[in-house]
Amino acid sequence: DSEYLIVAAMGILDAAISCWPASAWPVTFVACSGGFSNILYSFGLGYGLSMTANAGLTAAIARYQHRAPLTPFGFVCCGLYAAYGIRLTSFLVRRQGEESYAPRFELLQLKSDLMGFGSKAAIVGGVSFSQALYALPLAVATAPSATKARPIIRGIGWTGVGLAAAGLLLEHLADEEKLAAKREAPKAPVMTGLYSYCRHPNYFGEFLFHCGISCMGASGNPIQIAACVFPTFFMAFTLKNSAA
Fold it and tell me: What is the pTM of this model?
């Protein structure tokens, strides 16, 4: 019985590896499943955990499938994903512990408590599906074809790395600046520092990051490129509603 279970488990694992990044959805669904308790945990914490998982699993699967170390481009792309996920997760955990954020969290918890299971399932399923799509640019970036692409395509990919890095830095600085300002004056709008130049510098950094990861998949086929671009439009729509 134990041998049968081991063989079955290995078969499932091989199938998941061969289907990656399509098989990323169950992983991101688990990461976003906190949304059944509070929808914030799907959009925020689940997002950060999904990005971290996408980075680690894609890097491991690429090395296993191609029997070779990651290329510099693939390594940097996976590193940016991991840095983004770890930063976001740690920031959200710290923010939730802030007294200034308590009213917002309680409001979201009340809203979540009033939602039915079907509505929560739709949110968790939709958000986790969009997060699964984020594994595709990494899968393309870590494929051998990325190193054989035309120079202009490789240039687009590295431009995406620069955009993503700049966006990640900007979002980090803006989030930390806002967190400190809200600690001093919870109800006052933040109008200093980066916020004196842009109403939502954190959202702008987020958008830059997503534009960058879309470019990382430039060496894919037309369908893959379209799928790589979709999450950026999804995030732009989400940020627009959040900023409204």
Answer: 0.89
Burial class (CB in 10 A: 0-12, 13-18, 19+), 192: exposed
The alpha carbon of 170 is separated from its chain's Cα centroid by a whole number of angstroms, namely 16
DSSP structural state of residue 115? S
- Please give the residue that has the higher pLDDT: either 118 or 14: 118
Residue 66 in this model has a pLDDT that exceeds 60: yes
As a whole number of angstroms, the distance between CA 13 and CA 18 comes to 9
How far, in Å, CA of 76 to CA of 83, rounded? 10
Q: Give the C-alpha separation, 67 to 87, whole Å.
A: 30
Q: Are 91 and 175 in contact (CB under 8 A)?
A: yes
CA distance to 55, 58, 106, 157, per residue, from 12 (Å): 21, 17, 41, 33
| Tokens standing for residue 37 | 């308790």
Spatial distance between the Cα atoms of 86 and 109, rounded to a whole number of angstroms:
24
Q: Burial-class residue 177 by CB neighbours within 10 Å (0-12, 13-18, 19+).
A: middle
For residue range 180-238, what is the model confidence (pLDDT) as tens digits?
999 888 888 899 999 999 889 999 999 999 999 999 999 999 999 998 888 777 777 77
Token digits of residue 161: 């790395």
